[in-house]
TrEMBL record, chain A:
Keywords from the named record: Methyltransferase, Nucleus, S-adenosyl-L-methionine, Transferase, tRNA processing
This protein's record includes keyword Oxidoreductase: no
Region of interest called Disordered, as start-end residue ranges on this chain: 226-253
Gene Ontology CC annotations of this record: nucleus; tRNA (m1A) methyltransferase complex
Species assigned in the record: Sesamum angolense
InterPro entries named in the record: SAM-dependent_MTases_sf, TRM61_C, tRNA_MeTrfase_Gcd14
Family indicated by similarity: Belongs to the class I-like SAM-binding methyltransferase superfamily. TRM61 family.
GO biological process terms on file: tRNA methylation
Sample GO molecular function, one term: tRNA (adenine(58)-N1)-methyltransferase activity
Protein name per the record: tRNA (adenine(58)-N(1))-methyltransferase
Automatic annotation (TrEMBL), chain B:
Sorted UniProt keywords: Nucleus, tRNA processing
Name this polypeptide is given: tRNA (adenine(58)-N(1))-methyltransferase non-catalytic subunit TRM6
GO cellular component assignments: nucleus; tRNA (m1A) methyltransferase complex
Pfam families named among the record's database cross-references: Gcd10p
Role: Substrate-binding subunit of tRNA (adenine-N1-)-methyltransferase, which catalyzes the formation of N1-methyladenine at position 58 (m1A58) in initiator methionyl-tRNA.
Subcellular location per the Swiss-Prot or TrEMBL entry: Nucleus
BP term (GO), one: tRNA methylation
Family in the record: Belongs to the TRM6/GCD10 family.
Amino acid sequence: MLPIDPTNKLSLNRRIMEGDLVVVYERYDTFGSKVFSSKGGFVYLLAPTPELWTLVLSHRTQILYIADISFVVMYLEIVPGCVVLESGTGSGSLTTSLARAIAPNGHVYTFDFHEQRAASAREDFERTGLSSLVTVGVRDIQGEGFPDEFFGRADSVFLDLPQPWLAIPSVSKVLQQDGVLCSFSPCIEQVQRSCETLKSHFTDIRTFEVLLHAYEVREGNLGSWQDTDGGLHKSNKKRQRSANGLESSKPKTIMARRNGETRGHTGYLTFARLKCTM
Amino acid sequence: MSAKNSEESLSGSQNRRITWEGCSVLLDINDGDRVLFARLTAGSKIKIGNNSCSLQPLIGCPFGSSFQVEVGGGGPFLSRVIPSTEGNNLVDKMDSQIMEERRDNRAIVDNNTAQTLTGEDIDDMRRKGATGDEIVEALIANSVTFEKKTAFSQEKYRIKKQKKYAPRVLLRRPFARSICEAYFKKHAEKIGFLRVDTLSLMLSLANVTVHSDVLVVDMLDGIVTGAVAERLGGTGYVCNTYCGITPYPINIVRMFNFSDETCKRILHASLAELRPTHSGSSASIDELEDACNTNRQQNTEALSPSSAIDLVSMDESYSGNMETATNVAASPKSSKSIRAGEKAPLEAIKSWKENGFSSLIIAAPDLDVWGIAKELVPLLSYSAPFVIYHQYLQPLASCMHNLQIEKMAIGLQLSEPWLREYQVLPSRTHPHMQMSSSGGYLLSGIRITGTDQPQPN
């Protein structure tokens, strides 16, 4: 259960109970407590958060990651009590974070045209304890638009569709005035076309790309140049140094560098605000 | 799929879409050239160019509406501009021109003779009551080079003149997003150069949501505290902690339109009060109570007259950096019963000690972060996430190393957010020429039960 319900709140005294959802975190060798695994190393049992959920959920589709998710939630101005529409649901990675932001009295209505995918997502939200905040619908938003019952009711809308421009006219009907739309597209051609469609009913149209660069940190023992002897063999030098007892006295340096391989592109995020005409 | 009744009544005061008297607003002048905060009262005014305009016409308008300065019998006033939704033929025409653009800048010579209209001519037009839009049209008509420009630079020329002679004021909702962006654009140093995507990541990484008890060290004038409180929606707590007896100022919190319920959830407590007390020492509880009382007195003394002044002083500091002088005579309601940032009551402190905080956010640009982390991470519940912001990489790298050695946390990640904006126009799409090269660094992790800590039964 994600801790959006006061009874599931984290506490130093809370024990893991039957039926609790935990994220098993295995690395190096109550929640946040250490358990010995069969392999002899440690695993940690952690209370789930949308961030941990994103790492473990089953990928039925390409998913959104934390940098995009965080930016979307803040830029869509989502606060507790908001009504948010989303299409498609996909694997529900973003949906989980949307639900966290609108709790306790808002609601996320998420639509996917794929019946089986919608059903799997619904099961996931049941397991993560979000089913009171999220409703999953089966609908082709590109083809049919959002249902009429949402006209003028949505605070924010998120689109992750192959042809978002087809859904934009419907978005302008369901959004409240000054409400914000976000469209996520991997290709610039999609962005180009969406922006052209947005111009008639939207203002403040802005497109971003957001990434997160991870760093690795290690403690290193960088030798002094003066102590070396040109191209003399390394192991030789090492023996000499430890013999002199220099190694321990030398202050170690903490060094950080960017991880070697990283995600270079996820998608473009286009935001727009519905014009105020009243 | 049927609409639920519960969300019909969700128009909480936090999410109001129409301004009201006494509400805080963000005024965006000329598409972000100038941004200022104001409180809408009958008497408040802003200065745009040489005109001083009352903010009265903005009361009761929807957020997102635009205004233009017009001059009437009673002097200059702000008048609402209703945008057209369908009539974009002009823009469409321009788009098609851009697509098949043949013109270039070969005929443009920079010799300052392109404009035949003089300053006196413009003043004369003004005296005769010409509107800003009319002046812009006259300038275009009298520009020798306008027709030779590409459609794209014609548009740029028009926008430039429109900003000068017919400035627009956009009424924005003060949300964490807009407030952070406004500060980052004009006074980044006041919020420790915290960029909006970095702030958004902090809220995610700290798992801020309803019913959370969030411990913060907010030395960024309240931007973090406000952003957290916005996500709490009047539940849980955000507790701002500090060493010594004086809490950090949280002036930015007043720019959000927080309800009383949300204000009540913004508290502060000193590190000494939050540190675990050894069981059985009733004396320490008494001491604590004394400390709380004295602190409360000091606090009311220190904070009571500030509300109005800070908003104004901020605007003053703004005007110092602007081409035009600003004077916002903001006079918010003099005594609001509930103020954000009160001293944490004893029972709250007791509960935090018993249960631990559900997350921790540290934003202390001038302090050694490890020194803070080693005190505060142990105040978290097991499995609770934390995130530390810093402008520089090195202090976070050291802190990460120490947390690893002390086995205080897992899932440690040191990361740097990166944000790039794009210009999207027909045949003219590219990244913005200028971008922010650093939004700072974040260290995040999850608190675990360390080996040295006593296991609670």
